[in-house]
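Aim 2 progress update. The chain analyzed this quarter is reproduced below.
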Amino acid sequence: MSVIWGLHNDHQELDLIANEFISVGWDDIGDLAALGDDKEALKHKLTVMRPQAKPGAIRVWAGVLLRFAFEMKPGDLVVYPFKADSTLNFGEVVGDYFYDPTVPVHCNRRKVRWLRTGIPRAEFSKSARYEVGSAVTLFRVKNHAEEFQRFVDGVDSPVGNSPAIPLAAVAVEEAAENAEDEPNAERIETYTRDFVIETLLRELEGPQFEHFVAQLLEAMGYRTRVTQVSGDGGVDVIAHRDPLGLEPPIIKVQCKRTVASIGAPAVQSLTGTLAPGGDELGLFVTLGSYSKDAVHLGRTRQDLRLVNGTELVELIVDNYERFGPEWKRLLPLRCVYVVDREPEAD
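Predicted structure tokens:
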């Protein structure tokens, strides 16, 4: 079985998928190959460059950089969670580490051949999703490597039935490098997002999901009307600000209770119902994500807004207190304070 790495990268402008590479930060440290596979030397360099950093952070950063430059090998697999749409991407490392001083950010890079991209997180077991929600930029996937390997190999593996590999005992010296086990804010946020998406997907049928979206819009200050189940012409909810629904703009909403990627044709079916002139606007809401063509359509039309699963959860959380009792029973949430450490690097 291949070695599998989890990688977090929040620099969406790099477009790792289209440009076929992975990267990490800490650019001011310079070429890691020149420093060599020497943990103490790297920790010293990090301490000099980041004098305000705590010793624990220095150990974590050194571990990430050494793994990326020296432990990772061509042929290893990479799981790259894309936070913007809650999907996972799988690739094979096809090149050695290199440092590119000509790029503005993330000079530490490796070439990758992407094997499967845009896969909804819901395809995998809860514990597997939790593992790749690590707080560390780069980490070895241990417990659920077999589940991800089977997926990449195209072997059917029912969600939640993949055997987990027990965690090996971790030495005290390595504890800081395994901070992915810490229940920090980002991991809890990811867990909550998955819970909301799974609950809406599992507990609601299509018409119920339409009523849920209507309730969300009402919590946001709109008046809504859910259309008939059949013959709606691709419009599931009508929303407006005025009491009678006579004043523009009128918002036509299409709801898709799926975690699959929505393509441009589905979005075009909604835009085809809009009257010209800007008096009618289109809103497409899904639990999943959108294809590149659909995203491009959403960016080029001023009368269209696409809401993916991640954005939907954000809207739900922001407006949760104004939900009715029925929907609060469906999604029992409460506000808590959690550990929110500083990010690893710029």
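The radius of gyration is 23 Å. The chain has two domains: 4-180, 198-330. These observations will guide the mutagenesis experiments scheduled for the next reporting period.
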